[in-house]
Amino acid sequence: MGGTKRRKSKKAGLRTADFAGDGGPFSEVIVTISIRILDEEITRSRLAVNVYPDPALEPIARESLKALRKENYGYNDEGVFGGCLSDNFSGWEDMDGEYPKIDEDSKHPHRQDEAKRMNAYIAESVQWALTLHKLGIEEARRNEGDGFPAETKGRVN
C-alpha cells in the first residue's frame, strides 16, 4: 500500500505542504574543515561542503546532480539525502599549507588562489541549494494553481 500512496503523490506533483519548512523548503549547507596534525606539524587541511536539500526536493536534486555529472550524493548514516558538488571522489577539497584561512586578501598569490577556490566551492554549493528551492517552489505553485504572474512574482503590496 505504501507504494500506491507514493505513486499517487508523485502523480499529483510537489505541493507546498510537502516542504519541511514553514510553507517552503528547508535545506542545510554544511561546511566542514578538517585539519590533520601529525607529531608537531599540520600534514593536511581540507574542506567539504555538503548540501542536504529539503526531502521534497530530492527528485529535483538527483536530476540536477546527474545533469552536473556529480557522483557524490546519497543517504548519510541517519538516512538523510545529501549531495556534494566536489569533483574529488572523496568529496573533500585539499588545501595546501597550514590550516585554512579563507581570506582572499592574503599577500601570497598561492594563498589567494586557494582562498578563491574554497570560497567558490562554498558559493557554488549555496547557489545550487537556492536554485533547488526556487525550482521546488515554482513547481509547487504550478501544481497548486497559485502561481504568481511573472511581473508580480515575489513582490509584496
Overall pLDDT metric: 81
Q: Structural class of the secondary structure composition?
A: alpha+beta
**Oligomeric category:** single chain
Stretches with pLDDT under 50, minimum 5 residues: 1-10, 149-157
Largest sheet: 3 strands, antiparallel
- Tell me roughly what share of residues is in helical segments: 25-40%
By DSSP (H or I, 4+ residues per run), the number of helices equals 3
Lateral strand order in the biggest sheet: 1-2-5
Q: Choose one word for the global shape.
A: elongated
Series of H and E elements: HEEHEEEH
Strand tally, please?
A: 5
β-strand amount? 15-25%
How many domains, as an integer?
Answer: 1
CA distance, first residue to last residue: 45 Å
Overall radius of gyration: 20 Å
How would you characterize the overall build of this protein?
Helix content is 36%, strand content 22%. It is an alpha+beta fold. It has one domain. It has a 3-stranded antiparallel β-sheet, covered by helices on one side. A two-stranded antiparallel ribbon has the order 3-4. Strand 1 and strand 2 form a beta hairpin. The radius of gyration is 20 Å and the shape is elongated. The chain starts with a helix and ends in a 13-residue tail after the last helix.
Q: Top keywords for this entry?
A:
36% helix; 157 residues; elongated; disordered C terminus; disordered N terminus; alpha+beta
